[in-house]
Design a protein that fits this description.
Elements (H helix, E strand, L loop, with lengths): L3 E6 L3 H10 L1 E4 L2 E4 L4 H18 L3 E7 L7 E6 L4 E6 L2 E6 L1
Antiparallel strand pairs: 1-3, 1-4, 2-3, 4-5, 6-7
C-alpha cells in the first residue's frame, strides 16, 4: 500500500475534520497516510469530490505512488487546472493542462 498525500487550500473546515480522521496532518492543509489502500483512497477522494462539487470553493491535490505511471506518481486535482507528470529526458516535470 503506497503513501498517499492530499493538499488542501482555501477549503471549509469540514475537509480538515474528515481528513484528520483518516490521515495525519503534517502541516496546515497537508495530509499524509503511509499505508492507505487504493479502495480507501478512492472513497476519500469521492467524498472530497462530492463536497467540492457542492461547495465549489478552494482546491485539493491528491498524490500517490503508482508504479505504472510516469515518475511512479499519479496526481488528481479539484479546483486547480489538471496536472500530469512528464519525463523530459530523465527529468520529471509537472505539466499543467
Amino acid at each position: 500500500m503506497p503513501l498517499t498525500m492530499i493538499v488542501t487550500r482555501d477549503v471549509e473546515a469540514r475537509y480538515r475534520g474528515f481528513l484528520t480522521s483518516v490521515m495525519l496532518e503534517i502541516s496546515a492543509g497537508v495530509y499524509v497516510a503511509p499505508d492507505m489502500s487504493a479502495g480507501v483512497r478512492r472513497r476519500v477522494w469521492t467524498v472530497l469530490g462530492t463536497w467540492w462539487q457542492t461547495l465549489g470553493r478552494g482546491s485539493l491535490v491528491l498524490v500517490w505512488r503508482d508504479p505504472s505511471a510516469t515518475g511512479h506518481l499519479r496526481i488528481e486535482t479539484l479546483g486547480d487546472p489538471p496536472k500530469t507528470i512528464v519525463d523530459a529526458d530523465g527529468v520529471l516535470l509537472v505539466k499543467r493542462e
